[in-house]
Fold this protein.
Amino acid sequence: MEKKILPFCFLILPLLLFAQENTSNDTIKKNIEENLKFTPKQLIIPAVLFTYGIVAIESDYLKLINTQLRDELKENIDEKITIDDFSQYFPAASVYVLNNVGIQGKHNLKDRSIILATSYLLMSGSVTGLKALTKIERPDGSSNNSFPSGHTATAFSGAELLWQEYKDVNVWYGISGYAIAAGTGFFRIYNGRHWLSDVAMGAGIGIMSTKIAYWT
């Protein structure tokens, strides 16, 4: 298992440090002001994810997709890979790592920490409430708190933070965060801990929680 996890970890740093661009301070300040404003188009991706997750609770067709994906993965799984227990925190941690190596984001340590704490508060409250309300059984049958995926919500909350803080420095920083978050969601499905719809809803909650934290 360690041999499978180590290569995954070593891919993260190159993604974060790839092709840094030089951007003028005036341009960065202008982009910061624009990005912190609420615009309806910023709701599109979270809304799509929310809709898929909620509809899948009752839709027989989407339930079938969930079970087919689980069964297909079961046939090809040799052993579980628990990297998702750690990778959920990588995007948020990357914000602090980048700042510590001298690559400045939009906010200082205090402000970004407040934003992250606010996002995690909104995210964890939403996830906990929905788990208690829906009581959906996990794919592995271990418990009835599958919907939504808390690991995925945590990962995408951090990915949106990384995106907001560093996309104007270099877009690849933000893309790498979302790639890691998507990988976290995949491994939640791969390990039989969540359905596809759980992961979609978790991603939507994570993204939206961080967006709200920036707006407020």
User: Anything to note?
Assistant: The first helix runs from residue 2 to 10. Confidence is low (pLDDT under 50) at residues 1-25. DSSP finds eleven helices and no strands in the chain. Residues 128 and 180 are 23 Å apart (CA to CA).
